[in-house]
Amino acid sequence: xxxxxxxxxxxxxxxxxxxxxxxxxxxxxxxxxxxxxxxxxxxxxxxxxxxxxxxxxxxxxxxxxxxxxxxxxxxxxxxxxxxxxxxxxxxxxxxxxxxxxxxxxxxxxxxxxxxxxxxxxxxxxxxxxxxxxxxxxxxxxxxxxxxxxxxxxxxxxxxxxxxxxxxxxxxxxxxxxxxxxxxxxxxxxxxxxxxxxxxxxxxxxxxxxxxxxxxxxxxxxxxxxxxxxxxxxxxxxxxxxxxxxxxxxxxxxxxxxxxxxxxxxxxxxxxxxxxxxxxxxxxxxxxxxxxxxxxxxxxxxxxxxxxxxxxxxxxxxxxxxxxxxxxxxxxxxxxxxxxxxxxxxxxxxxxxxxxxxxxxxxxxxxxxxxxxxxxxxxxxxxxxxxxxxxxxxxxxxxxxxxxxxxx
Length: 407
Ligand code: MLT
Fold this sequence. Notes:
CATH topology of the largest domain: Aspartate Aminotransferase, domain 2
Largest sheet: 7 strands, mixed
Helix content: 25-40%
Mean pLDDT: 97
Structural class: alpha/beta
Distance between the termini: 60 Å
Bound molecules: D-malate
Number of strands: 17
Order of helices and strands: HEHHEHEHEEEEHEEHEEEHHHEEHEEEH
Strand order of the largest sheet: 2-10-9-8-7-3-6
CATH class of the largest domain: Alpha Beta
Low-confidence stretches: none
CATH architecture of the largest domain: 3-Layer(aba) Sandwich
């Protein structure tokens, strides 16, 4: 008899964004004439930057010529991309990361979800609340969660991120083995300073824990004081891994490309407490289960690091930040408190009511889709998230409708 992985029974309902999509589809079926403006899932709307598109085409053309054809590439990514990443994203900011510490993949969701495979099944996991659901669900699937009691899994440490700590969680009293952090944060849009990240690095060193740092939204940081990478904190390369994505940076949500940085200095431990190489382990996992991102995709990603690429992708992220500013202004003018939106494409709003009730009201009364904060964890109850990934026209229209409804 084939038996299932019982841990799957502990997962809560469906994946948040599938749940929202179902409700929106049902609304559209009942109201085919009503316009719906989607500000829920953070999916880009602008086309690829011209320079990426040209490199993408050239990559495809290379495959059409015997002299430049490529079969399987290196699982870790082509050196032209790994070197560009190491130089532009890390070395230029004083972070000592080398090309061979960069593992190119088909996106940060897969990497953040897969990375936990490297840890023991009894590892103690700390997750922010609210949280990007992938960190939670993949650890539930792996059997690290314990039971779901009163809205929380019994074996996780929850790092509350609330108005009172400016959505940057305090250090836990307990010892966590693995700590997920995400800045600029999904879903709150909050950012963390170097001093705040240093506290986490010190905690990880003291407790021999590992930080899994999700920096998928770093390209929205405009405040020059804020770190874009955890590796800007001295010593972080001994205790942290970083996930990055071209999805929001360069509009690759449909193209698929991301990368994970695993420093060689980063140590984990075997059951006897002997140090092991996390870099070697991830390399082993990656080469066993992944055959490399496609060559044309990596050509397109590398084009982001040319001077034209940098200018073109900044123009697009500036555009989304312009939308975020509009959302934030409308919300504040209505007398609601919110965070995010300055160095982030997400605006996190305190609705002063139940998250799903607010979601339903917005959907049914003005055709606006947001994301209910309670779907990201119990600290998200009462909040909703607005995504700035939309056209300026739609954002303006949505905020006019919202202002009319809530005034
Ligand atoms: C989100 O809306 O939170 C993200 O788009 C989801 C993702 O990147 O997987």
